[in-house]
Write a structure and sequence with these properties.
The chain has 123 residues and is mainly β. The protein has one domain. It has no helices and 9 strands. The relative contact order is 0.19.
Length: 123
């Protein structure tokens, strides 16, 4: 994350074939230019569609995510993943071993309760 409060992510491909990160895009990519401080980024790579899912938390705290294509271009929509009045923190994203579905999970602040969202594809 950048010091200016914008959400940034840098990803690189780990050595194992089962890893969820994809090819390094080079440098940092701003995925959110919201005016408040963003933190706790998590990145996963979808190999079949050559895209990333980047999730982060903001100070409210709420969990947001955005898709980034393999060439570094951003999806136009920032996704708000949680809709409760309790603060959510510590987002983590992954892609299944077949590379066909994303899963985003998070924890409620001050408790051990967790939430999740699944992103599937038809292909």
């Amino acid at each position: 994350m950048a010091g200016d409060g914008s959400a940034q992510a840098q990803v690189s491909k780990p050595a194992t074939a089962s890893a969820t990160a994809g090819p390094q895009l080079g440098g940092e990519i701003v995925v959110s230019a919201l005016d408040n401080y963003q933190s706790a980024p998590s990145v996963a790579y979808h190999s079949k569609h050559d895209e990333y899912l980047v999730a982060w938390q903001n100070p409210q705290p709420d969990i947001y995510a955005r898709f980034v294509s393999g060439d570094g271009s951003l999806d136009t929509t920032i996704l708000h993943l949680d809709y409760t009045s309790v603060g959510e923190v510590k987002p983590k994203v992954t892609c299944n071993s077949a590379g066909s579905q994303f899963l985003a999970v998070w924890q409620q602040q001050y408790s051990s309760i967790t939430g999740c969202t699944e992103f599937g594809t038809n292909s």
